[in-house]
């Protein structure tokens, strides 16, 4: 005989009356914390990729805690009631697909959470190169005493590709240590408050040779895919240093490897790659002028807490009928406005 307790009945009623939000997690045990403020307001359906289709049945919201997952497209036919997707990442290139772009579903991202951490990572990369820290570590391992003259970063010219929140935070921080900063974006302009003169990124090869440091902080879009190729690399100064914290696919990796091998540029700090994890066979692992990190430039202690709190704030806005923050232009592939 089937017995239904009052608690079971209450849970069933709640799930039928509250708006459902599916939460896609990397694994069953990797759930976001700090969602208590949403209790009693939404029916949170935690799932991994295998159960996403069932979780989306009747769901009005979707939280991509597994922010690099591409599982949504596979179960899109079951998302007929979906109104809103929030991605716990700044980049949405892994999510967007034609049917989503064409739909009325609103997409928001984690813009703002990663700005300062990534800017700090860029500054650390610039300083590590200029102050010969990588070389000093190699010398330490062989107990070699070699007094050298590092570079001065004050007055050095830096080009920041990408004029969104991450690019702007990077520009402000590099300016604060005395670097001369310019930007590259979709539209050229002068007197930008954070980046000074902004050049049109489509003409990158025509002006990139004026800069000592080139920082890619751009989202991945059709316009930025393969943006830094052999032509751009050959136009850079032989002493120039590339820092990539945007997306690996914005740099043609084979062209970069060739440029590093033949001394076309001095070196690179790479946090993102065409294929991640970076294959063990990649020559980038063993190049002494290359710093490799595991797509962690935005990670700081407490970063997942920040992402969870941001989602709670967005969900409360959605439930209250208030405007959402960080609404992505699905045709452009990023939050439009200051990032143009």
TrEMBL record:
Residues 124-297 form the D-isomer specific 2-hydroxyacid dehydrogenase NAD-binding domain. Gene3D superfamilies: NAD(P)-binding Rossmann-like Domain. It holds the Pfam family 2-Hacid_dh. Residues 51-328 form the D-isomer specific 2-hydroxyacid dehydrogenase catalytic domain. Signal peptide: none annotated. One of its GO terms (molecular function) is NAD binding. Keywords: NAD, Oxidoreductase. Belongs to the D-isomer specific 2-hydroxyacid dehydrogenase family. This is 2-hydroxyacid dehydrogenase. It comes from Luteipulveratus halotolerans.
